Amino acid sequence: MKRIKQILLIIFLSILLAYVTNIDTIPENIILFEGEKLNISTLFGVRIEKQDELPISSSVNSKQVNYVKKENYEVSILDRFKVKTVEANIIPNTKVIPIGETIGLKLHTKGVLVVGMSEVKNINNEKVKAYVNSNIEEGDMIIEANGVPIASTADLVQTVNSSNGEDINIKYIRDNNEFEESFTPIQISNSEYKLGLWVRDTEAGIGTISFYEPSTKSFAALGHGILDIDTKSLISIANGEITTANILSIAKGERGIPGEIRGSLIGQTAIGTIAKNTSIGIYGVLNNLGYFNLKNGEVDIAMRDEIKIGKATMICSLENNQKKEYEVEIQKIYINNNSDNKSMVIKITDKELLEKTGGIIQGMSGSPILQNGKLIGALTHVLVSDPSKGYAIFADMMIKQMRET
User: Fold this and answer.
1) What's the pTM?
2) How far apart (Å, rounded) are the C-alpha atoms in residues 165 and 169?
């Protein structure tokens, strides 16, 4: 009997944990388009029902946000126990211009990113670790040294060299929390000191711009964030820019070996500024529209229930100043996905594209996908086991991320 009670208790606690986790994942604030259904997965017995609708004060509206009203939803269990309220900000249906052009991206970090640590030989040729008693780790972002803001690697080098070997108080960020550590710089010459930290303040790469929103002059690109090559963490940026890109060659993808668009940013022209590097894309403002061919004109953002399994098209650029629309197939749709950029599974079916690239390759991330004359999403990832297949993010998630302040 005791054993049965223990088993029942474990089952009860497991079910309780599942419900607590499910409710915890329901956001308290969300953005919806006018007429869009609230798509949130819930367990049996958990209900989300609309309670009221409120007008938006004109003081809240801005060119970037442009909410038209608010809706409040009540989350309850078994229609009796209220556990949460969801506030939905409603934005008007919007039109965008799909682009699909290959671009360069340059990001400048908010501080300097720690990408490694090493021993330092001091002036007596002894190996020393200045960081040995600290808690600093790869992926931490140094923002201040001895009260001086650190915006670049040069700033940190100058501050360390001017310390004359005296302790330096380093302020850094990890997981959005600030920490402070004291370091004793290691003297390596008469005028040079080191901390033994390898840091970086810029990151660059190639990707595809997804769409342009004329009403705000804003753009969305990639459908995923830019991670640091060493730490694999999302880069927290101070600012950045997108540039033209010179495509040099195409490396075809094979099973187990992802291909890539090889390009150069040397001597290229700045065409926009980056404001946000997020897990679901790069966002900013375009200021050189002359570079893009926008003759295709504006299209609507598709609602999720409009997206269907079957044929679609994808725009991408594989040669300089040339973009083309290729055939793809939507194979799976995760309609309730609001948490990551794997909203749909797509398959490249266009013979010409398969011949050129072998399927989905690095650099094509962000390529816009259209179905029935509407933008439904953008390419994000390749399935390494089958380069003809990959993931795409819903277009509505990207436009909502763009609108968030």
Assistant:
1) 0.81
2) 12
